[in-house]
Sequence to fold (456 residues):
Amino acid sequence: MRGKQQKSVVDDKYAQWKSLVPVLYDWLANHNLVWPSLSCRWGPQIEQATYKSRQRLYLSEQTDGSVPNTLVIANCEIVKPRVAAAEHISQFNEEARSPFVKKYKTIIHPGEVNRIRELPQHNHIVATHTDSPDVLIWDVEAQPNRHAVLGATLSRPDLVLTGHKENAEFALAMCPKEPYVLSGGKDRSVVLWSIQDHVTTTASDPSANKPVGSGATISKQNGESPSVAPRGIFEGHDDTVEDVQFCPKSSQEFCSVGDDSCLILWDARSGSKPVIKVEKAHDTDLHCVDWNPFDENYILTGSADSSVRMFDRRSLSSDGVGSPVYKFEGHKAAVLCVQWSPDNPSVFGSAAEDGVLNIWDYEKVGKKKERGARTPNAPPGLFFQHAGHRDKVVDFHWNTYDPWTIVSVSDDCDSSGGGGTLQIWRMSDLIYRPEEEVLAELEQFKSHVATCASKS
Fold:
């Protein structure tokens, strides 16, 4: 009975959200997934046209064993700002696949795909985590397309990164500065690799027939996938490491969070022990962390306590003392993913098991006249809630090619018994633009309507 009541509440909230889509969004695409995907990431842009662009999108299929688990490369058409008609973007069928998302290639993955991360310098090279100690590296453009049927031979990764002693399932990051990979696992360690020696740059050869978006390939070897030993193993956590992130301006500095409630900052040049260890970053398990790409002093953490916290590393000390600069409390369940906007230094998103993806601006905290004040009970800093998912939002990713465009994915097993929902969306620019600009535009629109009315 209680389950039915909860479903009814979710359905009512969803119906209310869907009715507001034409007002809240500039564009939205809803794509039903037969199998859940625990990760979603943008790949390279492959085409620009007048009204839309085309871009690779990475997701996965976490199956029940009747067919193989897969890493999926899709082509996604992204409608440009102020092109989509408001009345059309809310007319989608939840059970249907979106015409904007087309499967391009399938890789048969050894085990479930728990996490996908792309190499920023060459974003057709991706790393995946599965239920094993190894990290798998794939050149998705060079990998052959496979047909996912029961008994099919597994695709062969281009590289296998070894070094964990137990399963490493979620904590995974790629370095923005160098082709380095970072991982954390159940063995409580953080492991660092360089794949520099295996990445062959082809950009210097103008005659090279290389795929769109690629500037490098992984050197091929016959037989088994070549394995890469770690550059460093870092120990300081007392429980499973749940997430890791590089400092945006350094390949030697990184941070990690875990089930021991700790936030740890590392520097590979200083040895394998923590530089700073914040013992009680939250009161319970930490699930996610991100480092501000504009200001390397600011680090976000998300936790099972439903909150997001922002730390300033200048105020952290090596004796484990460190209070957050801000606490953001707008979720009703565990926070699973946090990510800074690639375009706005003070804006970030957080996704949680409550099915909501919140967009925050820390500069609005403490301002007397917050945009959020239009909703009197909105938590400080919160200025947009994406409520289009009906189950836990397991991952999302800001688009670096298309500002304010986000892909998000939910695992719908609890609400509908299977599958998932992938949504690509962009909020209306009237929500985040300066208030004076918005009011001026609305005034202009009002006078235009008045003129049209007088003529008729």
Q: What stands out?
A: Residues 184 and 455 are 67 Å apart (CA to CA).
